[in-house]
Structure formats: structure tokens, C-alpha cells
Automatic annotation (TrEMBL):
Chief location bin: cytoplasm
NCBIfam families documented for this protein: maf (TIGR00172)
Protein name: dTTP/UTP pyrophosphatase
Primary role: Nucleoside triphosphate pyrophosphatase that hydrolyzes dTTP and UTP. May have a dual role in cell division arrest and in preventing the incorporation of modified nucleotides into cellular nucleic acids.
GO terms, molecular function: hydrolase activity
Catalytic activity: dTTP + H2O = dTMP + diphosphate + H(+); UTP + H2O = UMP + diphosphate + H(+)
EC number from the UniProt entry: 3.6.1.9
Keywords in alphabetical order: Cytoplasm, Hydrolase, Nucleotide metabolism
Cofactor entry: a divalent metal cation
Active-site annotation: D75 (proton acceptor)
Coiled coil: none
Location(s), subcellular: Cytoplasm
């Protein structure tokens, strides 16, 4: 039987340091093994369908390497109305994304998938409202380099905190892994949790 002492019983299928930090907050032991997939959205694909599809694909790809483990994966995207904003390819695209988010409310969706003896998944939405940004603020922030590997070109948990006026819903969802909903998935699947091991 797999126990909490065996770190290979849970695998985080992610290259994101944010997801690793967030999952660590639950006190779980796990190893990290990233999936490398094409993350291009399908034509007209809604944000919730897209993040769920990618989270499941990442978890299934890594589960093939760890058949005895539980594999957890997630995917996060920013949706401005029907439009998906992924990671900007360069500073110019980051500037454009931030200008469009300025003074408006957008949605952040994260899909979370758990694959092992059974499969379970969920999609979580948070609403994020930006302050109205000045061109100088946008230029300075893009110059920090922080936007480049973040969906929507910002990190609410980093220097980008000054961009955000308010967050409605799960804050950890915006950073890349909604902790409450992830914990519920792990609990329902029977994955050993720190407080159930004693
Ligand atoms: C909006 C927002 C996004 N992000 C990050 C979370 C995700 O890491 C990233 C979205 O990219 P993802 O494709 O979801 O994840 P990833 O490529 O970083 O890692 P992997 O697929 O291997 O799990 O944007 C923040 O860190 N803070 C924020 O405020």
C-alpha cells in the first residue's frame, strides 16, 4: 500500500515553481515530473474547456511514466471576454496584454486533474480587476521580466501585485493551483494527507 512516507505515491506533473510551492503548502510529499505538450487552444475553444483538456492531458502523459502513482496536473489561462490570453511571447506582447487588462475585470481559469486508480478533475474561476495603469507602470513592469512566463503577462503574487485592485474567488487559483479544490480532489480520491496519516 502507498503511504505518505513514500514520496513517489504523488507526482506533480508541472514545470511551474509556483505550483510546486503551492502544493508544498498542503504538507504533502511528492515528486515533480513535467509533461511537455502543445498548449495551443483549439479554434473557438472556451477557457474552461481548454484548461480542463490541458490539465487532463498533462496528468495522463505523466501517469504513463508512473503507473502506480497519483499524478496531479493543472493549467491556467486568462480570459478577457471570450479571448484567451496565454503567456506572452515577448515584451511587446506583454505590453499589449497589460494595456488591454488595464482598468477592466477578467477571469482566470485553472483546470486541475488527478489521475491514478481513478480520474477526477475540476475547473476553478476567479475574477481579477486591474487598476487603470499608466504607460510608465506598464513599461517598468515589463522591464522586470516577470510577465514572460505568466498567463496574461502578470503575477499577482510577485511584483505584479500593484496591478491588481481586487480578486474575487480563490487567490491560489490565480497563481496556478486552487488549493481548496485541489485538496478536495485528493481527499475524494483517498490520497493520504498529512492529517489522515496519524
Ligand atoms: C495570472 C497569473 C498566472 N501565473 C502563472 C501560473 C502558471 O505557471 C502560468 C500559466 O502557465 P501554465 O501553462 O498553466 O503552466 P506552466 O507552463 O507554468 O507549468 P506546467 O504546464 O508545467 O504546469 O502563469 C502566475 O504565476 N500568477 C498570476 O497571477
Amino acid at each position: 500500500m502507498r503511504t505518505l512516507e513514500d514520496p513517489t505515491s504523488l507526482v506533480l506533473a508541472s514545470a511551474s515553481p509556483r505550483r510546486k510551492d503551492l502544493l508544498s503548502q498542503l504538507g504533502l510529499r511528492f515528486i515533480v515530473s513535467a509533461a511537455d505538450l502543445d498548449e495551443t487552444p483549439l479554434e473557438g475553444e472556451p477557457a474552461d474547456t481548454y484548461v480542463l483538456r490541458l490539465a487532463q492531458a498533462k496528468a495522463r502523459a505523466v501517469a504513463a511514466r508512473f503507473p502506480a502513482a497519483w499524478v496531479l496536473a493543472a493549467d491556467t489561462t486568462v480570459a478577457l471576454g471570450p479571448e484567451l490570453l496565454g503567456k506572452p511571447k515577448d515584451g511587446a506582447e506583454a505590453r499589449e496584454m497589460l494595456s488591454r487588462l488595464s482598468g477592466r475585470t477578467h477571469n482566470v481559469y485553472t483546470g486541475v486533474a488527478l489521475v491514478g486508480r481513478t480520474e477526477a478533475s475540476t475547473v476553478v474561476r476567479s475574477g481579477v480587476t486591474f487598476r487603470t495603469l499608466t504607460p510608465g507602470e506598464i513599461d517598468w513592469y515589463v522591464g522586470t521580466g516577470e510577465p514572460l512566463d505568466k498567463a496574461g503577462a502578470y503575477a499577482v503574487q510577485g511584483r505584479g501585485g500593484f496591478l491588481v485592485a481586487s480578486v474575487e474567488g480563490s487567490p491560489t487559483n490565480v497563481i496556478g493551483l486552487p488549493l481548496g479544490e485541489t485538496l478536495e480532489l485528493l481527499t475524494r480520491a483517498g490520497v493520504p494527507l498529512p492529517w489522515s496519516a496519524t
